[in-house]
Amino acid sequence: MSFAAETRAAARAHPWLMTALRAGIVNYRAAASFLDIDGDSGSVARALRRFADTLDEFTSADISGVTVRMHHGVDIVSDDCGVVQQQDESESDILLRVTDDCILTTDGRLSAIIVDNISEISISAFITALGCVQTEEITITATGSTRDMFIIVVPREEGANALRSIEAALTVIPTSWNHPRE
Which fold does the domain 67-169 belong to in CATH? Predict the structure, then answer.
């Protein structure tokens, strides 16, 4: 593997660094010191700078039409005990099912933030929202994503902060992640 290829591989191993390279906000010498690459930091910094020049610029996605809502009183239950079948449909809704676990709106101690209508930016939006919620040090209890929605479940007392964090995250969704320009 060439020195340049090794540098690109090391950068790709850190998604946050790829985002920073695309946004043009990297101190190349500091990034070179961070990466575990044999060679002097000046050479690594130059390789990083050349690599950054090949990446698509960081741009934000259009989020018009995206819906964000919060459900309080959410619980995560396992269907293997028949809990879901015992719930009256008028009392609870299944927000998401993953294998035998369901996220139900009931009288629980959790809140679910649901983001809908994100079909073309779903993975980027989901990753960005998760990162912002984690940055705020909000406990994430469960998450899930489909092609046009995602859900993040947090303790009820952290629901409003998570909602604000996710709404803010939706203003900085990258349109692409790390595709080198040809």
Answer: VC0802-like (3.30.2130)
